[in-house]
């Protein structure tokens, strides 16, 4: 390794692209998982042409090298107390204030799901009926959907999808319950979400499937009306046709 090549510059966060296709990236990554930001960690890697040579890790309080060149330079940077102190300060001055902004602007926001319970498959007496409980347009994605039958949590016969991203920051989820209907029973879908003060219960009302019957009735009346009208039209056409005098050619 030539002496010249050995010195890596540590720039401020930047991405440089040179004309002949090289890239140098020095992103500023702030990682944390606790709401009080106490576990905030700053990582500043030096990535040249997609290779991570070395990075600053605030938990270690120093640079770590990953290649020969990176290790050489990490040692060099680690002998510069001013640079190390400046990066350590960035945890407080850059990471935490920015994380606070994201908390108040995004992470602390909750949007209530819109929940619907509907019958997907009726029971024919031998095969179970299937209900679907759908929660739409909620945030954050963490949600719990369970079923209650006569006040007792249903353990089996429940299948649930993952929380699915709508692509616009909202999520949806669908839970299915298979059961043999019994008269006088009470079935409900229970949804727990950060936007609710307490778990919300959505009762399944079998009379809600009545619109299905009225749809069938409307469809059937339409069909009968259509048959009557076409028959009337056909008879009218036949009468007209028979009234015509056919001239032999
Ligand atoms: C930073 O260093 C700590 C302590 O060794 C380690 O637990 C953590 O995984 C490192 N972070 C990254 C992103 O490598």
UniProtKB/TrEMBL annotation:
Subcellular localization, as worded in the UniProt entry: Membrane
Sequence ranges assigned to domain Ig-like in this UniProt record: 113-201
Pfam families, alphabetized: C1-set (PF07654), MHC_II_beta (PF00969)
UniProt signal peptide: 1-21
Family annotation (SMART domains): IGc1, MHC_II_beta
Keywords, sorted A to Z: Disulfide bond, Glycoprotein, Membrane, Signal, Transmembrane, Transmembrane helix
Transmembrane segments: 216-237
InterPro entries with a match to the protein in the record: Ig-like_dom, Ig-like_dom_sf, Ig-like_fold, Ig_C1-set, MHC/Immunoglobulin, MHC_I/II-like_Ag-recog, MHC_II_a/b_N, MHC_II_b_N
Any one GO cellular component localisation term in the record: MHC class II protein complex
Family matches, as SUPFAM superfamilies: Immunoglobulin, MHC antigen-recognition domain
Major subcellular location class: membrane
Superkingdom of the organism of origin: Eukaryota
Membrane topology (UniProt): Single-pass type I membrane protein
GO BP: antigen processing and presentation; immune response
Protein name: Ig-like domain-containing protein
């Amino acid at each position: 390794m030539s002496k010249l090549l050995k010195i890596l510059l540590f720039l401020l966060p930047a991405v440089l692209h040179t004309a002949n296709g090289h890239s140098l990236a020095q992103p500023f990554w702030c990682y944390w998982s606790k709401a009080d930001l106490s576990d905030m960690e700053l990582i500043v890697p030096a990535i040249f042409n997609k290779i991570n040579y070395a990075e600053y890790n605030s938990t270690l309080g120093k640079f770590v090298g990953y290649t020969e060149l990176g290790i050489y330079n990490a040692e060099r940077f680690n002998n510069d107390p001013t640079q190390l102190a400046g990066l350590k300060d960035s945890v407080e001055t850059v990471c935490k204030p920015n994380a606070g902004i994201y908390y108040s602007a995004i992470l602390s926001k909750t949007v209530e799901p819109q929940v619907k319970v509907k019958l997907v498959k009726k029971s024919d007496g031998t095969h179970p009926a299937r209900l679907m409980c759908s929660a739409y347009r909620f945030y954050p994605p963490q949600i719990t959907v369970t079923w209650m039958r006569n006040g007792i949590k249903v353990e089996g016969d429940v299948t649930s999808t993952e929380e699915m991203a709508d692509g616009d920051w909202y999520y949806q989820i669908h839970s299915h319950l298979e059961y043999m209907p019994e008269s006088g029973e009470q079935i409900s879908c229970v949804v727990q979400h950060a936007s609710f003060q307490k778990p919300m219960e959505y009762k399944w009302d079998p009379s809600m499937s009545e619109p299905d019957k009225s749809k069938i009735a409307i469809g059937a009346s339409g069909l009968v009306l259509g048959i009557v009208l076409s028959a009337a039209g056909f008879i009218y056409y036949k009468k007209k046709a028979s009234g015509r005098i056919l001239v032999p050619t």
